[in-house]
Amino acid sequence: MLRNQLQSYPFGLQYLSLFSSDLLYSAVEQCFDFYPLVPVKTPDECMKLTAKTLQMILDVAPGLAHCALQMARNNYLCSNTNEAEKWIYKTLEKNDSLADAHILKAQLILDKGGKISDAEDALVTGLNFNFKLRETSLYHLIKSKTYKKKNDNDEAIKTLKMALQIPKKDASNNVFVPKETADTHKISVQLELIDTLQQTKRIVSFEKTAL
């Protein structure tokens, strides 16, 4: 895209449409680095613009499963669980081997009070497609919630402690690579562990292990 062409448009969706879909998607991935870790009721302008940009890409290339997955993530973090669920199924229809889609599906099932067995099946399926999920705290966080739903707090605590022991990976210097290595979900793991220990009246043991 020539510089003088870009300068003739004010920033907005029409401006972004002048870029290639690949470049736009790379920008979208970067935006997710600034998303909240848990769903929020009022999405900010970054989240709204990200959704519009993803939709613009999907209008041109509707078969892109990874874009559909990011749309599902966006809706999930905007507390729009019904739309997130729709996009998850669209994603899996396009490509059922995307491990992250199965992980998000498990999250949605648990958040909506669905069957625990369905959430467990989604986790297993995701893990079968990508064994590296065991190295992420998000996988262990969701798995611990399935145990907690079954009132098996001992296994939930064990799983959460395993998540905290996952070694930190070296961050990439490539600005176009999402900051997955930051493993920001560890904060959520710590909070979930505290909550579970409080339920089992074992908060003292956690304080001792944290010292």
UniProtKB/TrEMBL annotation:
UniProt domain Tetratricopeptide repeat protein 21A/21B second ARM: residue ranges: 2-113
Entry superkingdom: Eukaryota
Pfam families tied to this protein: ARM_TT21, ARM_TT21_2nd
InterPro entries: ARM_TT21_2nd (IPR056832), TPR-like_helical_dom_sf (IPR011990), TTC21A/TTC21B (IPR040364)
GO BP annotation list: intraciliary retrograde transport; protein localization to cilium
UniProt GO cellular component terms: cilium; intraciliary transport particle A
SUPFAM superfamilies: TPR-like (SSF48452)
Stated name of the protein: Tetratricopeptide repeat protein 21A/21B second ARM domain-containing protein
